[in-house]
Design a protein that fits this description.
Length: 126
């Protein structure tokens, strides 16, 4: 992509674009603009990080009481994106992490991980 196109998109000159590219931090409106220009979701990187590494929400006594009064449990389905699953499967297949390390580091339930392994191996073989 030409620098002139980028400058036109941001309505600024070349040194300002270079300053953005060299900056350690960018305001979210600039990250959103770069995402649109490059047709790439830069926010997905951060949301994946939060899914994998954010601590689970602490439950207050009020939330615990409300949860106990419900008749049906709530399950968090489809929490992990395809990209996250592929990333984890790659770590296991490359030997970077063991299954136990993945379950411990990312707090992924054993049954979920083994379902992924079965599905991933079937997809890989076909």
């Amino acid at each position: 992509m030409s620098i002139s196109r980028i400058c036109n998109f941001f309505k600024c000159d070349n040194p300002e674009i270079e300053a953005m590219l060299n900056s350690e931090n960018l305001p979210t409106d600039k990250v959103l603009a770069w995402s649109k220009l490059l047709e790439y979701d830069f926010f997905r990187i951060y949301s994946h990080h939060l899914i994998l590494f954010a601590p689970p929400k602490a439950q207050s006594p009020k939330n615990i009481k409300e949860n106990n009064s419900r008749r049906m449990p709530e399950f968090r389905k489809h929490l992990y994106t395809v990209e996250i699953i592929d990333f984890i499967m790659e770590q296991i297949s490359n030997g970077e992490k063991t299954k136990l390390e993945v379950m411990r580091d990312y707090r992924i339930p054993k049954t979920t991980l083994y379902k992924w392994l079965e599905k991933y191996n079937n997809r890989k073989e076909s």
